[in-house]
TrEMBL record:
Its main location: membrane. Residues 34-186, 220-360 form the Sodium/calcium exchanger membrane region domain. It is a multi-pass membrane protein. The lineage of its organism: Bacteria, Bacillati, Actinomycetota, Actinomycetes, Micromonosporales. Pfam families: Na_Ca_ex. It comes from the Bacteria. This is Ionic transporter y4hA. Keywords: Membrane, Transmembrane, Transmembrane helix. InterPro entries: Alkaline_pH_Ca-Antiporter, NaCa_Exmemb. It is found in: Membrane. The chain crosses the membrane at residues 7-27, 33-52, 64-88, 100-121, 133-153, 165-184, 216-233, 245-266, 287-309, 315-337, 344-362. It comes from Phytohabitans aurantiacus.
Length: 364
């Protein structure tokens, strides 16, 4: 009798193949066909990262689980920004600003709006905890203003730049607020970030399903790290094609930052949509706002450290159009969060702001 053939799950094989593609293509000029193949492995590695992050998140429970994917995504973002800025010179001086701002707009309008829209379609209203969501949104607004708005108005250095002391202050403040938020989310006010029943009471849905074993979680953690390495490396390999494509299309350099943010936030978006479809809107909002906080709170300190050996200026200050979009996002977000429930209209408003950001990024 023939032995049964055991197929390796795609969530295991794809990260391994993506790393093999990375090894074979690293540091080489790639033809178009190879770029397409590497891009396919890159997309597969992103999807695999989502799966394994969700396995680990289920094992550790909420709200710790939401932090797993948020931190993983931020590691990808920082690695991509630093690798592209090394040797990029003045052309990449604003890449960190463009990527971080794009991440804030995508999370606070795109992921948040899509989650509310899906939640409201399932029920009359999408319900969530206003205490935890409001605290997270306030943290996003504060660190975004400190890191991205203030450089436009400071006078110690010409242009939208911080001095070394100002950059150090912004980095320490951003990191401090991020750590304070994590402490509140995981310890002191953990119940503020748990899913909300229609009756209004907080409930931890993880208790209704058996979590994976420690062995399964550890295997997923290893494969998650492998997938993240593949995402960073393969994205670096295809980034010249992205930059040349943007230039050939006559689009602004800021579009490169938008593409990076869209790529690295794909796992968060998919995970948030899945949570919203399971009527766990609070988890979706945890993912969205947690990613925004991590994106600034961890990226700015990392870029501040990297600026020690990076050549060229570091432009962090937003322009007038971007400040208007950020201000509108903050105002609309506050009005969305305060009631603790949202309708289709509020989800649509946030998605309209995302559409405006994407359009103006391509056509400033």
């Amino acid at each position: 009798m023939l032995a049964k053939i055991r197929f390796v799950p795609w969530t295991v094989s794809v990260p391994v193949l993506a790393v093999v593609a990375l090894i074979l293509t690293w540091g080489r000029e790639l033809p178009g066909v190879v770029v397409a193949i590497v891009a396919a492995f890159l997309a597969g590695a992103v999807l695999a990262a989502v799966h394994h992050a969700e396995v680990v998140a289920h094992r550790v429970g909420e709200p710790f689980g939401s932090l797993v994917l948020a931190v993983a995504v931020t590691v990808i973002e920082v690695a991509l920004i630093v690798t592209l800025m090394i040797g990029g010179g003045d052309k990449t001086a604003a890449l960190a600003r463009d990527t971080v701002f794009a991440a804030v707009m995508i999370t606070c309008n795109g992921i948040l709006g899509l989650s509310l829209l899906i939640g409201a379609l399932r029920r009359k209203h999408a319900e969530f905890n206003p205490e935890g969501t409001g605290a997270a949104f306030a943290t996003v607004a504060t660190i975004a203003a400190l890191s991205l708005v203030l450089p436009t108005f400071t006078t110690s250095k010409p242009g939208p730049e911080f001095t070394s002391a100002q950059l150090a202050f912004a980095a320490i403040a951003s990191l401090g607020l991020y750590l304070l938020f994590v402490m509140m989310q995981t310890r002191r006010h953990r119940d503020y970030f748990l899913p909300v029943e229609t009756t209004g009471a907080s409930v931890d849905d993880e208790q209704h399903a058996d979590p994976p074993s420690n062995r399964t979680a550890l295997i997923s953690l290893g494969l998650l790290l492998l997938a993240l390495v593949a995402v960073v490396g393969d994205a670096k390999s295809v980034s010249p094609a992205i930059e040349s494509g943007v230039a050939a299309a006559g689009l602004p350099q800021a579009v490169v930052g938008v593409v990076i943010a869209l790529l690295v936030l794909l796992p968060e978006t998919l995970a948030a949509v899945r949570a919203a479809r399971r009527d766990r809107v609070q988890i979706s909002l945890n993912l969205a706002l947690g990613s925004a906080i991590a994106s600034i709170g961890l990226t700015i300190p990392a870029i501040a450290i990297a600026s020690i050996w990076l050549d060229g200026p570091l432009l962090l200050g937003l322009g007038g159009t971007q400040i208007v979009l950020l201000s509108l996002t903050v105002v609309v977000g506050v009005l969305t969060v305060v009631p603790g429930r949202a309708t289709l209209l509020q989800g649509g408003v946030h998605l309209a702001l995302l559409a405006a950001f994407l359009f103006l990024a391509a056509s400033p």
